[in-house]
Specification:
The structure is a homodimer of 355-residue chains. Chain A is α/β, with parallel strands linked by helices and 355 residues long. Chain A is 48% helix and 16% strand. Chain A is built from 14 helices and eleven strands.
Chain lengths: 355, 355
């Protein structure tokens, strides 16, 4: 595995969150500083920040937790709070939370008065390795994930791993899935190290270089193609199916962690890779086995296939009604823009979801 | 006056709106084309477009007219329509309307699925010379103008002057004020030609080069300083007062066209320029006289001065409670960031608004 640098384009590994945050905030020369939490991060992460002593004049707003609250109502709460407290174009928002919070907060900041600064302090593994890099911001709307948003890089991203101590196992595993994905698409060695990592012990110091390598992979791919015209779609491996799983779960009011959906999605998209790109069946089987051992049985049944395919049809990347899926040539090597007919997808789903 | 080119950065003068639009649309390679109108532009401008024959598969949505409808409800109507008709990231929105419509439509497009393409077809003089260049998009929110929005350039802007035939005189004069401003800040020759232009006859062919020169001036200034750190504030000449006039009118439920407010504002800011920058009293008097002849008596009275100054205090550009005003050194030469004490403003207002 290659060496990892201390800092890549606006993302830094923090060993002292308070002094690093002080530094990051002072760089922005903000006239007012706002902190955004959700109920969980206010309870578990805010105590690690010395807000009262370091930023006595700052403002804090606490949103409801949960992906279902990444919506227009909560976005309006942030906008209204900015207005109430006299935020201006030179003010700064610090988002302390998971992907829901950094996505929503980022969007609120870059649309208020046509653009305030914002800093992300991701507190979940998923947000550290995924949401923290690449500048995607937004909210769910009209029953669809991330339907409204824009791409704008945060002024700074601080990754501080002690926040992970308070993370529950499901959320930990969820973030781990995006790390597995990073290995699968671009670094076979990272994949090998990840499947050797002991998720029961959860040694954070051993995980640190693997987190950084995952961030690096995302960074490199985003730098090649920030607007997602082609290569950035590599990051979507597993996600075409994942988004359908998440949309169906949302509709059924059943909670499904993003990373779990991605993990299940990678099983299907690996199976398609075997058919379309000649991924070896052994590698596809290994992926299926690793996913099964961490994420358990795929919680969807054959009679839901039609609904799932329906959701895939509205995917942002499609073209001429064929579904666009990122695939693997082998573990560690992605290929984007594989357009697949619906009946091939259906066949693979029937195969995997058979009783 | 300098020669004017056919095309500057994404803005073109159209002599045949249907073929130019066809060309502009084909460049985007859009999979679906949406047209956005308001009630007025659907009635008066849409008949000039051969939408049914040229774009038989396109979709059209008609919004309510008026600045008071540049709000979140109408923004949601556009987002919902996109969702209903299956718009995707490769779809395109064509905004046919005044500044309200191009601002709102631009914001809807660039936030839907994190960014569709959009083309502006401004139909008012104000939108052609002002809103069409510079990429400001957004809506009013919480009682404040343009509170939510972002800066993103349109893929293309088509200026087609025959739309002006159906424009009423007040709206025509309103746009004309921004042209006068362009002359005052950056081109004395343009100013001279504008004050010679006969607004009763309204010969559009004579106006065309003056429109283009105004667009060019805005373009040049925006290119120097897209984020409005300094020079872009030149475009704010007349606007510090104008925003106060507009806010007071809004509060009193009296309608005031933006350009009228700007014209009145230029009278006051010229008078301040005499005191602070040595603008010649003759030039200041000429500005006052031209504004009076086109826009009539300034509809504010001495007993409203306190309220107006109150509104100026909340301007985004102020510093240490002094009010930031763009001024003229002479006609054709601006100077930004002139900070003025409130009692000087009060004195000038009392002088001009005396009975």
């Amino acid at each position: 595995m290659k060496q990892f640098p201390d800092n890549i384009m606006g993302v830094r590994l923090s060993s002292n969150i308070n002094s690093d945050l002080l530094d990051a905030i002072s760089v922005t020369k903000a006239d007012k500083v706002f902190f955004l939490f959700d109920e969980n991060t206010f309870q578990y992460c805010q105590p690690l920040l010395n807000i009262r002593s370091e930023f006595p004049d700052s403002f804090s707003l606490i949103l409801k937790s949960g992906e279902e609250n990444k919506n227009l109502d909560q976005l309006r709460r942030v906008w209204d709070y900015f207005e109430e407290k006299g935020a201006g174009r030179n003010s700064l928002l610090v988002n302390v939370g998971g992907g829901m919070l950094t996505d929503l907060g980022g969007f609120a900041a870059c649309t208020f008065k046509r653009g305030m600064s914002f800093i992300n302090v991701p507190t979940t593994l998923l947000a550290m390795v995924d949401a923290s890099v690449g500048g995607k911001t937004g909210i769910n709307y009209g029953g669809l994930k991330n339907e409204i948003g824009i791409i704008r890089q945060a002024n700074d991203v601080l990754i501080y791993v002690p926040f992970l101590e308070s993370l529950d196992q499901d959320n930990f595993n969820s973030g781990f899935a995006e790390m597995l994905k990073a290995g699968l698409i671009h670094d076979a060695d990272l994949w090998t190290r990840l499947i050797e990592y002991d998720l029961d012990i959860r040694d954070i110091s051993l995980l640190l270089p693997l987190i950084w390598r995952s961030v690096q992979i995302k960074h490199v791919i985003v730098a090649i193609d920030p607007e997602e015209k082609a290569d950035r779609r590599a990051l979507n491996f597993g996600h075409t199916f994942a988004h359908a799983f998440e949309s169906l779960s949302l509709k059924l009011h059943e909670h499904l962690h993003h990373g779990y959906a991605v993990a299940y999605g990678m099983v299907f998209e690996s199976a398609l890779s075997v058919i379309r790109l000649g991924l070896s069946p052994e590698e596809s089987d290994q992926i299926k086995e690793v996913v099964g051992s961490i994420y358990g049985t795929i919680p969807f049944a054959g009679n839901e296939i039609e609904q799932l395919i329906n959701f895939m049809r509205s995917d942002k990347k499609n073209d001429n009604n064929r579904i666009n899926i990122t695939m693997l040539e082998r573990i560690g090597k992605y290929k984007v823009n594989n357009y697949v007919e619906e009946n091939m997808i259906k066949k693979v789903m029937e195969e995997i979801l058979k009783p």
